[in-house]
User: What shape does this take?
Amino acid sequence: MSATQSVTRLLGLGFTPGKLRGLQRISNPNGTLTMVATDQNSSMINMMKKATGKDPSYAEIADAKVMLSRALAPHCSGLLVDGYYGYWSTVAACAVPASTGLLIRVEMSGAKKNAAGAPCGEVEPGWGVHKIKRCGADAVKLLAQFEPDEFDSAEKNFEFTKHIYTECIKHDILFLLEPIHFAYNGEKDDSESKLKRKASTVIESARILSRYCDVYKAEFPGTLGVETDAQLKDNLKKLNDACVKPWVLLSAGVDYPQYKKQVEMAMAAGASGVLGGRAFWKEFFTYASPAERQKFAETECVRRVHEIHEIVKSATPWFAKYGYTLNDLHNFRATEGWHARYGGGTAGAGGKVQEGDVY
Assistant: This one.
């Protein structure tokens, strides 16, 4: 494609002006995504408590998040934060450069569980897509824990996902979806039954849910050291085929060396990048003093982000998922009056300039 093309082609893919701008903001210049997550509140609180011997205060968590953001944000294309502790303090402290996109999670921690012990997602109290859009973020992230064979929670979390998807369309903001498999019916996280179904759950969840987002945040479909590399590569191919939208790899709390190998395999299989969290920084919260945390963030955490970014640079650009090149995007154009039609509005003669109008 080289001639000028209508933006209708983008609209047909769900890329409205707000969504497309959000995706551009969180992407690298070549259309790949190197993103870091700092929204894991429960994990951070538990790690700080273990390191210091006391429950951290709100201010201590907020300070730690600002410090981590300031160290890592200049080195990633997008930073994921939470609303409760992270966003406003991070923005107010000028901890994120203008060149780095910002994503905010919409779900609350500690979702209620049903009779099978399966979590059913809820929006953070006092929060919502409309507020995330209003406060200037580039994208909404939803964690939707999902097990297709646990019928009750699957139906509830499916509807929850569709609701947030619809809200993001309404407010024209980019939507990242993060399904996670989980233990239920008395299982533990290390139960053999949970381990055995991980790959199939991750792949089937993508098949069911990936159409209800703009970017899909996937778990690694299997476990290093359990399945062979050949099997894991086949799983990744199936995941890539199942994803209707561009996808990125999460880290799920694994140690950094393991995550690095997962990233290498995922990028080779068609992923468009990463949105990793604890693999980049989890030791940060094991240090008792702010000075020790800052040193670790500015050295080891930054080194890890740089290393992963080098791998991500060769990933599949998000637009390639749809068969486009960056040059193709350069040739898209809107027709006159689009601004009046946008959002369902109208303005005299279809919004076109009339004689005597000043534009």
Notes: The mean pLDDT is 94. The CA atoms of residues 44 and 213 lie 27 Å apart. DSSP finds 14 helices and twelve strands in the chain.
